[in-house]
Automatic annotation (TrEMBL):
Record's signal peptide: 1-22
Protein's UniProt keywords contain Signal: yes
UniProt KW keywords: Signal
PANTHER family: DUF538 FAMILY PROTEIN (PTHR31676:SF114), T31J12.3 PROTEIN-RELATED (PTHR31676)
Keyword presence, Lipoprotein: no
UniProt-listed InterPro entries: At5g01610-like, DUF538
Protein name per Swiss-Prot or TrEMBL: Uncharacterized protein LOC101515328
Gene source species: Cicer arietinum
Length: 161
């Protein structure tokens, strides 16, 4: 009799846990791009086709997931995103970033922090940083071709898309 009571309490606990986790999943319908914008960043900091994310709203720890690693060139910079990007997010600041690198001349450097100051986005690789206008990140680049996908399609080179 005592074991049946414990079992029924355990079943009620599991059902409560299951229904609360389902409601958390349903409440989490924002895309990773929406979350970026909630924290003051433009969506174009992430390439297109993120497949999901996790976010601890108390600590700001996050992860963004892609099907595979992603690489593209914008102007003279080649960027590489691993299939999982992690870090900490707070209003106008992404830090402890892992999974995003930029090629500067012949060196691949980790982007470790991104911050927004008014209309400027500051990218830090630890030893140096560079500012770019927020208007450069209003749209998300596409893996393989960045923002030049249409010109690649017009020229018949779609292999990298």
């Amino acid at each position: 009799m005592h074991s049946i009571k414990i079992l029924s309490i355990f079943v009620v606990f599991l059902l409560t846990l299951r229904s609360s986790s389902c409601s958390l999943i349903e409440a989490n319908k924002l895309s990773p791009y929406d979350v970026l914008m909630e924290y003051g960043f433009p969506k174009g900091l992430l390439p297109k086709d993120a497949i999901g994310y996790s976010l601890n709203k108390e600590t700001g720890e996050f992860a963004v997931y892609f099907d595979k690693a992603c690489s593209f060139t914008i102007e003279s910079y080649t960027l590489n995103y691993k299939s999982t990007i992690t870090g900490v997010i707070s209003q106008n600041r992404l830090y402890k970033l892992k999974g995003v690198t930029v090629k500067i001349l012949i060196l691949w450097l980790n982007i470790v922090e991104v911050s927004r100051h008014g209309d400027d986005i500051d990218f830090s690789v630890g030893i140096t940083s560079a500012d770019f206008g927020v208007e450069n990140f209003l749209e998300s680049p596409q893996c393989g071709c960045g923002f030049d996908c249409n010109s690649l399609r017009l020229n018949g080179d779609v292999s990298s898309i």
